[in-house]
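Feature request, filed as a ticket because there's no other form

It would be nice if the structure record came with a short human-readable summary line next to the tokens. Right now we just get the raw output. Example of a typical job, pasted below so the devs can see what we mean:
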Amino acid sequence: MRLFCKIITYITISCGLSYLAYEGNGSFFIEFLKNIIPLLATLLAINMTSSALIAGELSKLRIKYPKADLTATNKEMKKTFIFQLYLLIALFIIFLLRDALIIQNLEIKKIVTLISNAFAIGIFLYYLEIIYDLGKALFDILNFNNQNEDL
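Raw output as currently delivered:
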């Protein structure tokens, strides 16, 4: 149920922002979309670095607490990385198709543009959520290590 609500929230926010950007014809959003793929690739690299740091800290915890089962955490980090990669590839394909569809059929330009922009915004928001989760996890691990060093 939580996942369903999250998906609905992403769709709603993405479609709303896409519509506002399309109707407003602002230069910020146009420039943002020109740079979205390199930006997402950079965020993916940051996420990978953060995940590697978290995996290293988890390895240290596994040595200290051998009964701790961290396989689910490692699987989730791997799954998230693969999903981000798929989203980046999907966005690239969507932008290619969008340009082909708009050139061939100008009647559907607004719908195709709105949908592709909403998809780009949704992916960007998802990437930001992943960065937030990784940062939160890293600080939780560091706080856990600091609390246990005092004992």
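Something like this underneath would help us a lot:
The mean pLDDT is 84.
Residues 109-149 form the longest helix (41 residues).
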